[in-house]
Amino acid sequence: MISSLQLGERINDARKRAKLTQAEVADRLGVARTTLVAIEKGERKPSNAELVRLSGVLGVQVHDLLRENFVRTEISPRFRSTFGVDKKSSPVADAVERLRTLGTRYAELERMHGLRRVRARLETVQTYHVEPGQHGALDDRIAGEDAARTVRGLLALGDEPALGLDERFEIEAGLRIFYLDGLPQKLAAFLLWSDDLGACVAVNRAHPREKQRWSITHELGHFLRDLESGDVLEDGESMKRTEEIFPESFTTEFLMPGTGIQRRFADRCRAGKFTPVDISALARIFEVSFVAMALRLEELRLLPRGSYDKIIQSQIRPQTLGRPDGTKVMPCPPRSMLPERYTTLAVAAYDQELLSEGEFAEYLATDINESRRIYQEHQRIRLEDGSQLPIDFAAGDLRSA
Question: Any long-range contacts for 202-207 (C-beta under 8 Å, 24+ apart)?
Fold first, then answer.
């Protein structure tokens, strides 16, 4: 059971996140402001009825105030001030609160299983970090390209396509990546940082897969440059800011490494010509958009400047281009909102009765029926020969066997 002091701190945190003053909350509860002050200080424990009313006023669940594995999180002040997320209501502020909640729950699931967050390998890279208003030793564009090559080297990618970014960036950079519904169309992604959570990234789930990969990598660029300031990535004018030069240069070189593109371009030119279908094929290999690949080929001077504009003017549409064998390129299904590791930790916590069924569904941000389906789906590991291996969530560390 948590102490009165811990409960008071949680009520205080929830009130501040709801952008309410002590006087406003006290008035809605029908108590004196001094009573609420005493509750937040841990000097007076609220009754069960007061807790229920408090949760309604603050917009939180009662068990969120009482649960044992609660993780207290404070988003970097520089992120809050830069992007104005302290406003009571805005699309960005609402999305930030959703991401903060998911990141907090991720940390709570780790705590339930006795896991602790350790700094990932890319968190220790300080070469490209700059303080607000400062510039590094290199031009931002050159520095971004250099950072991409450095990270590719650390990940042993060479000049090959960078695939499986979610898992790579979670392991190597500690990024907690979530795909959110209901974001404004122009909001591609955002990055926030907390000392308790590390870096959390929200990606617009409605965007195409190639754009999502670009957004995640762009946020990694900001992570390397200045993780405490975070980032909100929007299409349009925001991309013209000088602070976007480094992450965009990083993203371009990381997803479409110059040497890798040149080698594959040369391979395709051996047939005697290079057509829009070849651009489409390269875009699929590197999992980027047609326009990104076409402009990259122009940038590397492998195609004349203006080639992409000519393709569009000729009324060839990238989405109509198929594979060389004539088969149609099918769109990818929507990504899961939650990281696979997050879901596995939640399933294990429910299996070991660390979460009730209602809490399990809440952690998965879904309803009871869907949470039951997810639980059943995660009961076995499918092996290459088609057989299935039952999972024992209470098993010990295999390294100690």
Answer: 202/95, 202/96, 202/98, 202/99, 202/178, 203/177, 203/178, 203/179, 204/179, 204/180, 205/179, 205/180, 205/181, 205/334, 205/335, 205/337, 206/181
